[in-house]
Every structure is written in C-alpha cells, then in structure tokens.
C-alpha cells in the first residue's frame, strides 16, 4: 500500500508546507486548551507545534499578536524564518527582536507585527521601559524552556504576561527540562504550566517519524604514563584532605566528589562568617587546592597531556590565590608539571587515536560529523590533529567569550562557520557546549562525545544533533576506570529519573491560573508608581514587585535606587554591598546626598551584614548602621531577601501615595573631583561601568586617550570584548542626529 502524505489545512498555514502528524496534532489539542510544557527530542517538530498554535490563536483573536522567545540571536532569526515559511503572513508582519535592533525600531516593528521572535532580555528591557504592552499577546512561546529557573528573564516575562494579557496562553518547549524534580517543578511554576505533554522515540505515534539512532560506548585504557601521574595527583589530593580532617573539617574517608568539595567550602564559609578563626582561612585554602587538583585529575583522565599542560600554565600565570601559590611550592606538583611538559609532545590520550579511527571509517565526502568536548584546549588540539588526516576537514566551533590569548567566535562568525559546514567546506565540526542548543546546526550523520557528561539535558541535546534526516550514530568515548565512567552513569541515571518524573506529570492538570486582575494583591496596586534605577533591573526585586501587581518604572536615577514619593527615596543594599560600601567609603557619601535631596530617605538592608563582615570588624558594621540612623536620621529597614525587599518597597509606596503624595525625582550629586568627572564621562559609554571606566583610564591615561583608542586597542583592556569595543567605537564615531 502506498503511503499518502497528508498536510495541515488552515487559513493561516501555507498550503502543503506542514505535514499532518498525529502526535503533533495530539499535543496541539492540549496546548490549545491549557498552558502546556512540551518535552520532545530535537527534530520532532516542536517549532511546528508553535506555528500551528500561533495560527489558531491569531485566527481566534485577529487583532492579537504572537511572541516566541529564544535564548540566542541565531535561534530568533531561525524561528522568524520558520513562521515566514509556514504561515500566511507578510514579511513585515514577522519581526526579529535582538539587542542588535535599536529600541525605537523595535517599538515601531511591534505595532506592525503579528509574530515577534525575540530574545528574552530584549522583551524584558522593552516591557520594563514601557515601549509596548503584552496586553494583546494571545500566545507566548518559551523555547528552550528548561532555562526558566533562577533569575533568567523567562520567569519575569511569564509572570507579567499572565497578569497583563487579555487572552493569555503559554507554550513551553524543551528537549529536556532536567533530571531533578525540584528543577522541573520550578520550570512548571515559573511558566504557569497547567499540562505537560511528553513524547519520546519509543511512543508508537512518534516511531514512524524517527530515524534510528545507534548509540555506542567505546572504552579506551588509560596509558601507564598517565596512570603514574594520576597516582601523584591523587596523593597530593589525599594529603590535603587529611589536613582538612586534622583541622576538624568533616571530610568523607571515601573518594570525594567536586560537589562535596563545593558543599564543604560553603559550610566553612558559613562558619567563618559567624566566627573569625585562622583555621577556617587555612581550610578554605586547602579546599581550593583540592579543587585545583581534582580538575587536573579530570583533565588527565578524560582529555590528555596537552589540555592538562594548558591548565598548569594558567595556574602559573594566575598566582593571586594562596591555594595556587601553595601548589607551586609543592615539589611533587612541580615534578608532575615537568613530566607532563615532557610527555605532551610525544604522548596523546588514546581517545584521540580512537577518534581518528572512527572518523576515518565514515564516508566524510557524503556525511557530516560533530565532535563534542568540554574544553577549548581540547577543541584546538583535536582540530589540529584531525586536519592532518587525509579526507578530514575539521573546524573549530566555540562560544563568544575570549580567554587569555584565545579568541572566541562572535555570533556572526559562528553563523559563517555553520554555513561553511552546511556547504561541505568542512565535514567535521569540533565544538564545545555552544553547539548543544540555540543554533541552527545542520543535521549530521555522526555525533561523538569526546567525554561523557553528567548532565542529562546536555546529553539529550547532543544526541539530538543526529538522526534527523536519516539513520544516525552516536559514539561516546570513555576512559576505563576514570571519571568518565562516573559521568556516564550519572547522566544515564538522571535521564531515567527525568523520564519517570515526566511520565508522572504527563497529562496532569494544574490549577487554572488566575486572571491578571485576580492575581493582584489589591486594586490600589495598579495605580502605585515606583521609579526604579535601571541598575536595579538585574536584581530580582523588579520581578517580585510585579508579583505584587506593581510595575516599576525604570529610570537612570542620580540619587537612590527607588523613588516612592516627592519626599521618600530608598537606597537598597545587599549585606555584601553594604560592607563593601563601608570599606570604599561610598556609604556615607550616598547617605548625605539622599539626606540633602529627600525629606525622608530610607535604606533597605537585605541580609545580615554583621554575619558576612569579611575584612571588617562586626562593631564597625554596627557602628555604620547606628551612624546612619542616629547621626543622619536615615532609617535602616532590615529585609531577608529580594521578595521581602519588594514587599517593603511596595508597602512604603502604598503608604505614601495613599496620603496623596506623588513621585517626584530630585537630587543631584555634589560637585565631583576631576578624577570622578573623568570616570563619570567614560562610564557613560555603552557596556562600561565605573570599574571598567577606571581600567580604561588607567590603561590609556586620559579621557582623550580612551576616545581616540581603536577597537583593537580597547580590546586589550580586561573586560572589554569585541562587542563592547564595537559599541564604544560606534557611539564615538556616529554622527549626532
């Protein structure tokens, strides 16, 4: 019987462009009725489900628009292309919003667009600045939804959306939301999810559309020379763990994991905050040394001599920490470094030889491969060695950040590399985690894990790069008897646990979200006006205020962090910032300016500065609080966290404005010294804060020197990357209009 291909028919879907698949239609039916989290492997068409639901919502609400959020610019552009390809919309009705598009142009495009594809940070900034409203958005799609944890903008946007939209509907898409129940619960809660739809390669309605992906685990032995260095590093590690035990730190007698070391460090830091004792400082230094040795062991076992040697060279350059100084005074560590340097040229990790064998067996004139590895040093080494093999044309693919002398790849360069890979100019992509998500990576025939990874999210994303158009193959290289084995089993267990959790959630119906009016604490919250300094946008207070039904208005404030009335201004400080501001003498300068500018200045102190007063006596901290309250008459209000601070700010604003006082911005900073004025001018450049302004001025000697510096010269200053340097030159060179 011949197979008759069916297509989706809808007034807003282009004819014969979207294949009618049963599993997509089933998921779509759920998503049409409730906020839905869709968990499906890469290449099963999560974006198609978003397009089909968008068509339904736009048909039902013709005056509305759809917003699809994605974490990177290339993915935003890719999604915009999908909407244009599948939907009956004109080009001007689909807009791409990234940081590269000016705010004024985004505001204009919003008015014309029916579909907006955007990065979350851009939408967050635009909504906070009041450039447009989410009121008429009938569908909000969150791609790579597993990111909706912590302070990532997804949670804020979802909260604002369900409060503000007339006809809200949320669709969240991910290949894997995580292996921990708490993390999955956080994603579900933050995105106001009501239903969960899970599809895997095993589901009968999915199986006809999935190409077989064969997974192989290839084990290689650890060479004797590696084993000898391993024993030396393990001996140094055990010696430091023994010293920690002698200091009274409870360290397990068995093999200690990196996670346990991090927990130990947090525990000791907590003790040190409560009691300043010399042995706690010693313990922290020993723990840092243990972590350095553990990382060296991981590189030796899983990567090879050259990558380990690169790490040793960085330790020798970065000797500011006491732990690294102690390592460099250890004769055994020096012996290991020298041995590693002698072996690096002549002895490669056996994985490299096996990788060459695997790739050589592929017909790379017709097929493509991706090799994933954790470390850039390994990427560089693999590209160098693979390009010596006839028939292999390998290319490096890494993230944007630059480190030491190694330059990252800008998004433009990343896209260029992928286009060359797609055209066949290269047939092997050697990549770090940047190729796991967020980019339009061409489907490949072979994926190689140079090492297993303990993250089930990343393992699933890596595997999803193959088997899209035809049968795929995944090879995982494992060094026997090393951390590779532990990472492999960790990923397997976490993935199995994730599937179990999701199976339990499948189809479950959560409580219907309240309407945007029902969610507000009271009707008066709608009319509260709170002006917030733009530098506070990175804190969680703005999101917490939104949960209370208050929309803060971001402005660049000369005085304070929040203005709540004509007389009341609030400066918010975390405990850490409070201690730092005492030490660098900012605290009382800021307090005096507030006192001069507003009749009722208030300082909100978040956390306990006495407990974390590193390098400062506890009495000095108490004295500063007393001086603010008694000498300057500035009340110090203590709060627990960002949510508590937001509640306090809202309460103060409600009290002030219910008595008829309105927000009025006042206050100017007192006359600056020449140095302060120079810093102020340079700090006005894009991406430059006061710390970076000082570095620029110290490097170039004057404001004129900074302004005359070329892009390349600017990038020589620590903290100035390609993007910031380009923006600085653009602002300086552009004609004023």
Q: For the residues shown, what is the average pLDDT?
A: 84
CATH fold-level name of the largest domain: Rossmann fold
Strand arrangement across the biggest beta sheet: 3-4-2-5-6-1-7
CATH superfamily of the largest domain: P-loop containing nucleotide triphosphate hydrolases
Residue stretches low in confidence (pLDDT < 50, at least 5 long) are 512-524
The largest sheet is:
7 strands, parallel
Total tally of structural domains: 5
Proportion of beta-strand residues: 5-15%
**C-alpha end-to-end distance:** 68 Å
CATH class of the largest domain: Alpha Beta
Overall form: globular
Enumerate how many helices there are, as a single number: 28
CATH architecture of the largest domain: 3-Layer(aba) Sandwich
Radius of gyration, whole Å: 28 Å
Helical content, roughly?
40-55%
Structural class: alpha/beta
Total strands: 19
Describe the structure.
The protein is of the alpha/beta class. It folds into 5 domains: 22-209, Rossmann fold, CATH 3.40.50.300; 213-220 and 349-480, Rossmann fold; 224-344, Up-down Bundle (phosphoenolpyruvate carboxylase, domain 3), CATH 1.20.1320; 523-658, Rossmann fold (3-Layer(aba) Sandwich), CATH 3.40.50; 674-733, DNA polymerase, domain 1 (Orthogonal Bundle), CATH 1.10.150.20. Helices cover 47% and strands 12% of the residues. The protein has 28 helices and 19 strands. Strands 3-4-2-5-6-1-7 form a 7-stranded parallel beta sheet, with helices on both faces. Strands 8-13-12-9-11-10 form a 6-stranded parallel beta sheet, with helices on both faces. A 6-stranded mixed beta sheet has the order 15-14-16-17-18-19. Helix 8 runs antiparallel to helix 10 (278-302), helix 9 (258-274) runs antiparallel to helix 10 and helix 11 (305-317) packs across helix 13. The longest helix has 25 residues, at 278-302. The termini are far apart.
